[in-house]
Amino acid sequence: MKYILLIAATLLTGIALPAQKKIPLELGTDFPYKTNKNLNELLALERKGKGRKIIIDLFGSSCVVCFRMMPKMQEIQDKYRDSVLVVLLGKEDRDIRKVFDKFKSKMSLNFDPVYDSAFFDTYSIPFLPHYIWLDENGITQATTGTDELNPLNFERFIAGLPLITKSEIAKQNLMILNFFGQREWRAGHWSFIQVGTQSLGQNPIYKLSKAFAVFRQR
After folding, report:
1. Cis peptide leading into 126, omega within 30 of 0?
2. How far is CA 214 from CA 71, 148, 150, in A?
3. Three-state DSSP class for 58?
4. Three-state SS for 9?
5. CB 129, CB 58: distance < 8 Å
6. pLDDT for residue 199
7. Each residue of 133-160: pLDDT tens digit?
8. Where are the beta strands (DSSP E) in 99-211?
9. What DSSP element (H or E) covers 86?
10. What's the pTM value of the predicted model, to 2 decimals?
C-alpha cells in the first residue's frame, strides 16, 4: 500500500532527488556551471545578443511531471520569446534522449535540450521538475518548482522584480486569484484585500499585475 501511495505522489508532484552533500545554487550570483560547452554557449550568446532572461528547465528520464510540463514550457517560450529563453537541461542517462525524442514528436515541442550528468551530481537539486531563473546577465534570481510558473511571475521576472514564491504566499497567508476565478495558490476562507497595481505595504514583492487580485485568509 505504501508503495502504491509513493508512486501516486511521484506522478502528481515529480521526483525527489537523493539528499547527498552537494553545492547549493546561490541566488544573486553568476550561474556557476561552466563545464558543459553547449549550455555555456547558449548563455553567452544571450548575454552578447538578444539579452533575454533565461529559465533553465531541469528534467530527468523518469520524471513524469517533467514531461507533462513541457507543453506549458513551450507555450511560455512562444508567448515570451522576445524576453525569455527556455533552456531544457536533462540529466544524462541511457534512456533520456530516447524518452525526450518520443515526447518531442508526440507533443510537437520545438526544444533541443542540453544533456549533462555532472551538473546534477555537483549541485543541490532537491526535486524535479526544477527551474532556475537567470537574468540577462546570467545571475541566478530564483530556483523554483512548478507552482511559480504563472503569468504574474513571468511579468515580474521580465520587469526585473522578485518572483512571488509559494513559500512567500504561505508565510503571508495570501492567495493570488486571477480574473478567470482560478486560484494560483492556497485554499481556505478569504477576504478581499486589493486589486490592481498598488502595493501591499512597502515590500515590492506585492506589486501586482492588473490581471490579479490578492486575498488574505480570515
Report:
1. no
2. 28, 16, 15
3. strand
4. helix
5. yes
6. 38
7. 999 999 999 999 998 998 889 999 999 9
8. 114-116, 127-128, 130-134, 140-144, 174-178, 190-195
9. strand 84-91
10. 0.73
Sheet of 212-217: strands edge to edge? 174-178, 212-217, 190-195
CA distances from residue 103 to 48, 90, 106, 108 in whole angstroms, order as listed: 32, 13, 5, 8
Apex 118 CA angle, 158 and 89, nearest 5: 35
Contact present, 214 and 194 (Cβ < 8 Å): yes
Identity at 130, one-letter amino acid code? H
pLDDT of residue 184: 43
Instruction: Give the C-alpha separation, 215 to 134, whole Å.
Output: 29
Contact partners, residue 184, CB within 8 Å, separation at least 6: 150, 152, 175, 176, 177, 178, 212
Q: What angle do CA 151, 32, 51 make, to 5 degrees?
A: 50
Q: How does pLDDT run across 60-100, given as a tens digit for each residue?
A: 999 999 999 999 999 999 999 999 999 999 999 999 999 99
Q: Which amino acid is at 104?
A: K
